[in-house]
Amino acid sequence: MSSRIVVLAGDGVGPEVAAQAVRVLRAVAERTGLELEFQDALIGGIAIDRTGTPLPDETVEACTGAAAVLLGAVGGPKWDKGPGHLRPERGLLGIRKALDLFANLRPVQTLPELAAISPLKPERLAGVDIMVVRELTGGIYFGRRERTDERAFDTCEYSVAEIERVCRMAGRLAEARRGKVTSVDKANVLDTSRLWRDVATRVFAEEFPRLEVEHLLVDAAAMHLLSRPADFDVMVTENMFGDILTDEASMLSGSMGLLPSASLSENGPALYEPIHGSAPDIAGRGVANPCGAILSAAMLLRHSLGAEAAAAAVEEAVRQTIRDGVRTRDIAPRGADAAGTEAFGSAVIERLRF
Questions:
Q1: Which residue range(s) make up the domain with 332?
Q2: What are the tens digits of pLDDT across the range 271-281?
Q3: Read out DSSP for 231-254?
Q4: Positive or negative CA dihedral for 309, 258, 256, 5?
Q5: Distance from the Cα of residue 100 to its chain's centroid
Q6: What is the pLDDT of residues 63-92, one digit of tens each?
């Protein structure tokens, strides 16, 4: 029986990078005997244009019954002035909620070959290998909100159960890695963060007693990500803090175009997407970096299909492609020839080894 992957290409460069991820998955299937089928569906701005909503019911239905979901990107200036419920990003928030994708995993690694493109000194990048676990369905993005001409508010809310399950996810990941977890909050100011710290402390003490546990305020965490990034193993934090810190952490690798993510539920299908946005300024030009999308496909193989060897092969093919000097323009040396989106995807496929 084949595994059905729903592809939400979305907007901007989303269709371009998603196409390369699908090409890589098809190559993996051909060479390993893995049976995959792909179904396209709409989300974001293109869904607004075609159906009047950023998340059609048909998309939710398709994703709910899939083995996994692969997303490109959503958004763009074309839809920026629309009402809040018709913004492309509401489609992304909606699919996360519909699939109960409570844990967003964002790995951050640095390659020696790309140390020069990071704004940090190369000596600070040695050994950086971080897994950020961001709570994805609670917090201020999903709380009560209101706006009038004179005022506005957004409410941050968390329950004990929401904090427990994302901390357990982080704890399991840390046990399988280097045995350290850093919980990030703002417990000196926010009641939600005081609850977060209390629950995180209890979960790690009772259920993961062998882990080294560190608690940091979010402002300190932002500073330490730049001053001592190699000290971090697994980081776990709430929704908005995770959104901000992972974009900051992407600069450790040198480009947002390099980094993947996986959004996991407890029992249902997971969603995989590069962390970059839709980059409308370069959309349609064939120059976008597909690394994040391809590495997201590797995470799909690992977490949704249990194909660890195939996932590792894709990741190594990406690393070898970069080692061999094949670079898209965001990671190419100044003045050097840069590979286009499709050419980079082809280079990765050529380097797949099983």
A1: 1-99+269-354
A2: 999 999 999 99
A3: G-SEEEE-HHHHHHHHHHHHHHHT
A4: negative
A5: 15
A6: 999 999 999 999 999 998 777 678 999 999
Catalytic residues: 141, 186, 219, 243, 247
Distance CA 60, CA 43 (A): 10
Do 116 and 122 touch, CB atoms closer than 8 A? yes
The Cα-based distances of 77 to 82, 141, 273 in angstroms read 10, 21, 21
Statement: the pTM of the whole predicted model exceeds 0.85:
yes
Neighbours of 215 (CB within 10 A): 17
One domain, residues 134 and 175: yes
Question: What is each CA distance from 67 to 34, 264, 286, 338, in whole angstroms?
Answer: 13, 12, 29, 35
**Residue whose token pair is 């370069």:** 282
Place of tokens 């084949």: 2
Which domain CATH number covers 150? Answer: 3.40.718.10
Beta bridge partners of 263: 104, 271
